[in-house]
Amino acid sequence: MSATVLSGRELAAAIRAGAAAQAAELAEAGTPPKLAVVVATADESSAWYVRSIAGAAEKAGIACDIVDLGTGASPDDIRHRLAALSADESVHGVILQTPLPDGAKLEDLASAIAFEKDVDGANPLSLGRLASGLPAFAPATAEAVVAILDHHGVELTGRHVAVVGRSTVVGKPAAHLLLNRNATVTVCHSRTGDLAAVTSAADVVVAAVGRAGLITAEHVRAGAVVVDVGTNPTEDGGLVGDVDAASVTGKAGALTPVPGGVGPVTTALLLRHTVEAASAALDR
Ligand code: NAP
């Protein structure tokens, strides 16, 4: 039997519709929501991702400025622009797109994004608050993992979740969000001794690595739920996840597809966060 496909498309559409309705109300109230995406890379897949955010924002009635600083931007250039956007009252959400130029580190530069405009949870303050169970915008991808599981009715309380990947943008915040939901969480990484032994003991496996097909049937317990965060470009211009779907589908109980799983939910959540930030600005 094949694993149930846990699509993210319907959930993403519902989140986008909610964001669009709230954006219209905010515009009516004199606070049209605006997102700024700071870019300092010529990376193709990054450009595609930024265009997809801008397109989705436009459709939802959210203005989206792509601030392209060019590949020659220094860490100071980026920091100053993030600070300026943070001080700009017409801007409600600020994202720093990766990859960054050599010598620039996301965790360092993102401290220049005002906490209340940090709609992709990149400022270390946001991750610290998340870890402390305090309100903060979570990185949209990490939140999308939990949102897609909730949407499909996957219970988290008391379940063992293995998160593969410990980046500050996906693995670590996903682990904190899952802990906040009372899951028992194991975080794996490149130095984990026997990955398959850990992941195959879990009820839910979240793969956030960036290696096509890393997770195979031997990594998954029969009937487990598998969330594939990976987005690995293929030579023919397509996209594959970190999970070898052909191998895993005969063993797992459910699996998120790539594309069409975590990705669309991530983009939709960025829009939701932006209107929430605009709404909070209106209330201040
Ligand atoms: P990253 O910063 O490169 O982190 C990758 C993590 O995977 C690291 O913690 C690394 O361990 C671990 N790892 C590498 N090789 C491993 C192995 N053989 N076994 C176990 N763990 C291993 O990547 P990221 O930014 O978190 O992104 C992860 C994936 O998610 C990528 O495919 C990315 O494109 C995708 N992504 C998707 C979305 C979306 O919206 N769908 C958004 C963001 C990212 P160490 O810490 O030990 O190096």
Question: Can you characterise this structure?
Answer:
The protein is an alpha/beta fold and 284 residues long. The protein has 2 domains: 27-114, Rossmann fold (3-Layer(aba) Sandwich), CATH 3.40.50; 140-262, NAD(P)-binding Rossmann-like Domain (Rossmann fold). 40% of the residues lie in helices and 15% in strands. The chain has a 6-stranded parallel β-sheet. The chain has a 3-stranded parallel β-sheet with strand order 3-2-4, with helices on both faces. A two-stranded antiparallel ribbon has the order 9-10. A hairpin with a 5-residue loop joins β9 (232-233) and β10. The termini are far apart. The mean pLDDT is 97. NADP nicotinamide-adenine-dinucleotide phosphate (NAP) is lined by residues 141, 164-167, 169-171, 188-192, 195, 208-211, 214, 229-232, 262-263, 266.
Write the layout of secondary structure elements.
Elements: E1 4-5, H1 9-28, E2 34-39, H2 44-59, E3 63-68, H3 75-87, E4 93-96, H4 106-109, H5 124-131, H6 140-151, E5 160-164, H7 171-180, E6 184-188, H8 195-199, E7 204-207, E8 225-228, E9 232-233, E10 239-240, H9 245-248, E11 254-255, H10 262-283
Bound molecules: NADP nicotinamide-adenine-dinucleotide phosphate (NAP).
NADP nicotinamide-adenine-dinucleotide phosphate binds at residues 141, 164-167, 169-171, 188-192, 195, 208-211, 214, 229-232, 262-263, 266.
